[in-house]
Amino acid sequence: MTDDYALTGAQKEGLYKAIFSRRDVRSHFIPKSIPNDVLARILNAAHHAPSVGFSQPWNFILIRDSETRRKVKESFLREQGRSTALLDGDKDRQKKYSSLKLEGIMESDVNVCVTYDPTRFGPFVLGRTSIEETGVYSVACAVQNLWLAARAEGVGVGWVSILANSDLENILGMPTHAKPIAYLCLGYVAEFSDKPDLERLGWLPRMALSEVICYEKWGELEPPGSWSEFQSGVKAQDEVRREDNI
Ligand SMILES: Cc1cc2nc3c(=O)[nH]c(=O)nc-3n(C[C@H](O)[C@H](O)[C@H](O)COP(=O)(O)O)c2cc1C
Predict the structure, then answer these.
(1) Whose Cα sits closest to atom 7 in ligand 1?
(2) With 90 as the cut, is the pLDDT of residue 180 above it?
(3) Do 203 and 101 meet the contact criterion of CB atoms below 8 Å apart?
(4) What are phi and psi of 85, to 5 degrees?
(5) In terms of DSSP bridges, do strands 58-63 and 155-160 run parallel, antiparallel, or are they unpaired?
(6) 200 pLDDT exceeds 60?
(7) Measured in angstroms, how far is the CA atom of residue 227 from the centroid of ligand 1?
(8) Distance 223 CA to ligand 1 centre (A)
(9) Which residues sit with their C-beta closer than 6 Å to ligand 1?
(10) d(C-alpha 209, C-alpha 193), whole Å
(11) Among the listed residues 143, 144, 136, 104, the one whose alpha carbon sits nearest the alpha carbon of residue 19
(12) Closest by CA position to 114, among listed 46, 180, 167
């Protein structure tokens, strides 16, 4: 009998490497197709995500057809125009926003729309009775599994959310009870940046871990005595640029 279920050193290293070197990829896709077995493994990792009441409320719509993608790209361009207009009062930020590459719909090898079906297995979902959003949270867990598995396989993923869901529903022929949650672009890449594009380009900085941990109550950033040793460890993590170690 063992009480140590930790992964081995190499396994842990692999997991953390996938976590810290995963990137949202929009600009570095290369024209190389993802082999069927690789794509199937990535989707199987997504399918093994946790889900409220084991409801597995996701579907993965795989899209290679260029006409379908062109329609999705048009939706992106319309929505991008709308969001650019929201920055009319801040010309500097608007200019920067307009210069960002925020999707790789046409250049990636395959697009995957991850959807949510709240009716799966019937109306009673164990655990979803109080917090309805747990259904959507489950789909987000599947997306993260997909993202990490793709990184492990050397495949880049970009999440495009500057889209109208109504467009996606029409373009993809979805029934009214199902909702698109994530529109993802997958493909091999020329590089995985060491930092998020939005950090590199000065849009926003990564916050320190110590800025987002509260002790016992919302907003309590200074720990009571019992937590102080732990906080030293957190501060040490703040010093470690994980991206520098990958
Ligand atoms: C729900 C969600 C929606 C996102 N939508 C977009 C998007 O429309 N366009 C884009 O370029 N990146 C999008 N991203 C990617 C984020 O910009 C990116 O995750 C963040 O800047 C951190 O970078 P990293 O993923 O490389 O660590 C989205 C990410 C999430 C989780």
Answers:
(1) 160
(2) yes
(3) no
(4) -65, -30
(5) unpaired
(6) yes
(7) 33
(8) 32
(9) 23-24, 26, 102-103, 159-162, 196, 198
(10) 21
(11) 144
(12) 180
Pocket test for ligand 1, best of 17, 20, 23, 24 (most atoms within 8 A of CB): 24
Number of residues assigned to the chain:
246
Amino acid at 235: K
Flag whether the pTM goes above 0.85.
yes
Q: Is the dihedral of CA 74, 197, 83, 88 positive or negative?
A: negative
Measured distance CA(189)–CA(146) in Å, rounded: 16
User: Per-residue pLDDT averaged across 160-176, rounded?
Assistant: 98
- Going along the chain from its start, the domains and CATH numbers come out as 15-204 (3.40.109.10), 207-246 (no CATH)
Cα 134 to Cα 59, 81, 118, 209: the distances in Å are 16, 32, 10, 25
| Atom 3 in ligand 1: residue holding the nearest Cα | 161
